[in-house]
Prior knowledge:
Mean pLDDT of chain B: 91
Radius of gyration of chain B: 24 Å
Oligomer: heterodimer
Number of strands of chain B: 11
Strand content of chain A: under 5%
CATH topology of the largest domain in chain B: D-Maltodextrin-Binding Protein, domain 2
CATH superfamily of chain A: MetI-like
CATH superfamily of the largest domain in chain B: Periplasmic binding protein-like II
Order of helices and strands of chain A: HHEEHHHHHHHHHHH
Structural class of chain A: mainly alpha
Number of strands of chain A: 2
Distance between the termini of chain B: 80 Å
Largest interface: A-B, 32 and 37 residues
Low-confidence stretches of chain B: 5-21
Strand order of the largest sheet of chain A: 1-2
Structural class of chain B: alpha/beta
Strand content of chain B: 5-15%
CATH topology of chain A: MetI-like fold
Amino acid sequence: xxxxxxxxxxxxxxxxxxxxxxxxxxxxxxxxxxxxxxxxNVPPGGDPVFIGLENYARLVxxxxxxxxxxxxxxxxxxxxxxxxxxxxxxxxxxxxxxxAQGLTRVILVSPFMLPPxxxxxxxxxxxxxxxGIANWLLAQIGLPPGLWLSDPKTVLFTFxxxxxxxxxxxxxxxxxxxxxxxxxxVFEAVELDGATSFQRFxxxxxxxxxxxLVTAAxxxxxxxxxxxxxxxLTTQGGPGNSSTTLNILAYRRGFEFFDFGYASAIMITLSAxxxxxxxxxxxxxxxxxx
Amino acid sequence: MKIxxxxxxxxxxxxxxxxxxxxxxxxxxxxGQTINLMLNNHPWSQAMRDxxxxxxxxxxxxxxxxxxxxxxxxxRLTTLMQGKxxxxxxxxxxxxxxxxxFEKAGWYADLAPLIADKTMTMPDFNYEDFSASIRxxxxxxxxxxxxxxxxxxxxxxxxxxxFEKCKVAxxxxxxxxxxxxxxxxxxxxxxxxxxxxxxxxxxxxxxxAFINNQGGSYATPDGKxxxxxxxxxxxxxxxxxxxxxxxxxxxxxxxxTQVIELLGQGRxxxxxxxxxxxxxxxxxxGRAQDLGVKVLPPGRETKISKxxxxxxxxxxxxxSQRKPASWYFLQWAxxxxxxxxxxxxxxxxxxxSVFEGQExxxxxxxxxxxxxxxxxxxxxxxxxxxxxQSPTERVPEARDIIGTAVQxxxxxxxxxxxxxxxxxxxxxxx
Lengths: 290, 430
């Protein structure tokens, strides 16, 4: 009488329980607590008092929330599209060029190794219109100075460019990895058929890279939607509210204005946006799979 | 019999002296403990880090000091206090800003019983040595929530050499500032003329004198938000126009760090910035010789001069498990002896005996600008106010709204529209 290996394994499932409990505790408790806070009024120094959906009702009527949501989505759209386009271009370049290997790759990796605080400090040193070297460089080549992070019209785009500078190499490395793993015979066949470079890229490379690009998009989406440190260090959400994204709004409400319940409601909403974007990309990944 | 008499006398003497011994203050009573301090980045904190070894040598109490920039300091402090952390013993607080909220939240320990306890407080501590207005800012009812560590307020700094070179007179009234700025700009277009705080939450500190001196107020006579009052509008418009027309590029993201850097590097001719930054400004070469410092000029018609005058304090967490040792640090750090040492770091002493004392007077006599700075501090101590927002307990939020109104005017909104919008938002905080 032999016991099948499946049954043997099933008998040991309980051994995974500690790990499961630990994982659920580590992830589930903070999220559950944040949800509880978002449903409560939390006075400074006091305990949470359950108020149902009051904080969410307040959120819907708050123009600052809608402005922050709009800014978060705008920053997300600008950053992600620039990073995917530039990352794909750079990734293919790296994948095809023997010269761009070794040290070049190491150098490319360096921006995303930098802590956000360092990037924020660099932004202050480089982009401050009074102290920064960016305007000095522009003046050397006869271009007018920019206000960068000090102008409500340019502040969000400047943040998108900063994030793109830091994270495009990351996307490029993912794309390069995906490109190098593609079947060579497909490209040989296309070449034999006499396709132009653009046709080869548009009809073969890009569709084949679809799943890779979606993976890169998922990873970057989560990060971009949580973009906080650099904004906080440089503008603190200003000028006015022109860079007050949901993260900044929640931080200010919670830590500067002691409105912890409302700040939690904002963060739970932002988390829902993050989960939503991941969900959409997961569906998309299935659609572009080959 | 004689032995009995001697023993009896000795016993009586011990019995009589026991209460006396119990009432004796002993600096080493809490030797061996370690207290945790969280401080805001400030000249006082930097000095404390250097002086803490003296405290340990005197008391045997060790200190672990963490210093953060103001925003990070506030965030961490809020988290620890909300979480009722027992790890934090001593922290800095700006009672004029967060005092009401912190007191309501129960985040301050009551220092009054400790001050009154002769076994816990050194005999020459003399709490009354702090001026009445400074004490009042940290007193809620009978509860003393913190001890003052400095006094400060915004002052008008100007480059005397540039004024002289351009033959421009030093402004005597606040209304002279635009013409002064215009004349300086006409004299040297490459020179920065003016800088002041443009970051929204930081604006009210330097804005307030512009409003008060022109007869304005943040509140109406019946206690409602009053930015739309005619004289208050004048103050808002003047502050914003100086920033817009003569301020440095990017001014809306500037706070004292950038303003002091511009002044120190010699890139601007005038500013209205904290007295507290005096020592930092003096570190820049040449500034001790070419700068002038005084209280912002009064209104021409009103003759009012009413700048902000506040002081940072140091306090104790009610959740501290080492309250006696923490109290020892508080009284040592705010003692006459230590405040006299802090003068060299440019920390304006809040104790009258130190301010009027020999050490301070010797120090200010060394340079004319130090004398001007000290005179300005005496003046703002008499005329200044610790209130720089419309009536509300939600002070940080109110100051943020006022700063946003100024930013909007700088960006082109009409002062009346920006003020009306701000008044509506401020009314919701009442």
